[in-house]
C-alpha cells in the first residue's frame, strides 16, 4: 500500500481565464488574458485529510458516455479569411487548432454542405439550376465550388496535421428547385416521395464526392435548425418529413456501402422532445438514426440526459454553440455532465470588421480574430484557450466519470478517464474570488485553488491496484 505523498505522485495543472467576455472590442484589438492555457506547478497527491473549500468526489470505476471529439467549425467565412493569409500563417492557425502538443488538439470539425449564413460568397448548393428547371437524376450535381474556394484543401491539411481528425457535415438548405420557396432561403422541401428520394440521393452523392477528395464524413445532419425559416439558407422540416428523409438516406447509404452516421434534429434544447420523439418512436426513423444533435440557443442541456435515458442506443452531440468566458467553460461542463459525446463551436475566425458573413445579426467574438487591414496578423480570444482546457486533455475514447457536480458559488467540474489510464478533471471558478477545493479519487486527494474567473485542468495517473 502507498504510504506517503511523494510515492502517491502529482497531478499536472493548466489554467485559462476570461477577459472582457463577449465584448466586441475583441474584434478591434487583443486584450491581456491572465492565463492562456498555461502550465502551473504540479499539485501534490496525498492521503485524504480535512481541507477547505468544495469537495469534488470522482468515481473512475463508474463510467458514462464515450467521448467522440471536441472542436470547432470550418465554415466558408473562416476558409475565406484563411485564404487571405500566407501559407505559413495558414499553417500556424491550422496547427494551433488541431495539434495536441502545441495547440488546442481539436479532433472533430463541422463543415457545411453548400453554404451557410457564414460565407463570403453568394449562397450556393451542389445542384443550382435556373428557375423552373429540375434535375431529379442530379446530372448537374457538383462540389466544384467547395474545391475552388479552398475548403477541401484546408480540410485536407487539417487532416494531415491531425490524422485522427473526424469531420461531420450539416446542410443549411436543399437545392432551391426542390423547395416551396424556389430559393435557398426560407421554404420547405416539396411534398412527394420523388423529392424525398432525390434529396437523400443528393446527400449520398455529397458524401461520395467528399470521399473522392480524400475526406471521409463521419456523420451528417440532414437539416441545420429544421424549425427555422429565415433570410439565409434555411428550410423548415417537420419531424415527419425528417423521418421520411433519413429513412431514404439510410437506404442510399446502405446500398452504396457508406458508413456515415445520421444525426437527427440539430436544433435547440427547448424543442428537442417535441421534435425527436415522433422520429424515434417511428420504426423507420429509429432504424435510420445513429445520434441526436443539439444547439444551445434556447433551453437547458439537461434535456440531453432525458433523451439519452429515453433512447439509450443513440449518441448525443452538441453540434453548434459558441459562448464566452468562464460561463462558457461551465456550460461545457453541463454538456458533458448531461451526456454529450461531443462539442463543436460555431465559426472559427472572423476579421476585425466582423466579416465576412451573411448572418442577419452582428456576431460576437470568434475563437480567432484576423486583422482586416493586415491579414497576416491574428489573435486568439480567451474562448480558444478555455475550449482547449477540454480538447487538449480529453482525447477520443475517453469516458466521462461519475462525480459530484460542485457549485456555482464555489467551483463546478466534470471528470473523465482517458484511454491511457489518466484521470482528467476540468474545474471552473465562475466567482470573483479565489476558490479552494479538493479532488477526492480512489482514496487519494488533490488540494488546489483556482483564481477568479478561471478554468483549471488537472490530470493524473490512477491509483495502482492494491496487491496486498
Automatic annotation (TrEMBL):
Highest taxon of the lineage: Bacteria
Name all Glycosyl hydrolase family 30 TIM-barrel domain ranges. 68-394
Where does the Glycosyl hydrolase family 30 beta sandwich domain start and stop, copy by copy?
397-458
User: Which Pfam families has this protein been placed in?
Assistant: Glyco_hydro_30 (PF02055), Glyco_hydro_30C (PF17189)
One example GO MF annotation: hydrolase activity
Keyword terms of this UniProt record: Glycosidase, Hydrolase, Signal
Query: What family classification does the UniProt entry report for this protein?
Result: Belongs to the glycosyl hydrolase 30 family.
Give the protein name, as stated in the record.
Answer: Glycoside hydrolase family 30 beta sandwich domain-containing protein
> Which organism is this entry from?
Cohnella cellulosilytica
